[in-house]
Each structure stands twice: as C-alpha cells, then as structure tokens.
Design brief:
Layout lengths: L5 H11 L5 H13 L1 H9 L17 H14 L4
Length: 79
C-alpha cells in the first residue's frame, strides 16, 4: 500500500502479531479509516476490527515480551 510510513507498518505489524496496545489499536482504527484498502486486506485475512482491542493486553509480562522479541530478532537474523 502506498503512502504508509514506517511507523504505520510497525503499527500494522504489532496488530498482526497480536501485540497491539489499546493506543496501538486506536491508531490502527484511524489508519484503516484513512486507507480503505487496508480494511479490505485485514478482512481478507479474517482480521476485521472490532470496537475495542483484545482485553488480554491489560497485563504486561516482561519475560514473555523479551523471549518473543529475542525470537523475532533471531528469525530476522538481526542477532
């Protein structure tokens, strides 16, 4: 999709990886409003937006976050 910034792509990545906070989710909603194609793509993936972010993001587990980040960096051969 044309016109998306690196920040937009980062936001989309967090949403797709189920790591979006409520603030991120609000940003995704705004982004989808500005980019109807994005809404279509998310719906094709079965990831349509509901009215609120998933509630399981209310707590933060630093150990799990570190493991997920480390795994992602290894997968992308950054470490």
């Amino acid at each position: 999709m044309k016109g998306l910034s690196m920040g937009d792509w980062s936001l989309i990545a967090r949403y797709l990886q189920d790591e979006a906070s409520q603030t991120d989710f609000d940003g995704i909603c705004d982004l989808v409003e500005r980019n109807p194609t994005l809404r279509e793509e998310l719906e094709m993936l079965g990831l349509g937006l509901s009215n609120s972010a998933p509630t399981h993001h209310d707590t933060f587990n630093a150990d799990t976050a570190f493991i997920r980040l480390n795994d992602r960096l290894k997968k992308e051969k950054l470490i």
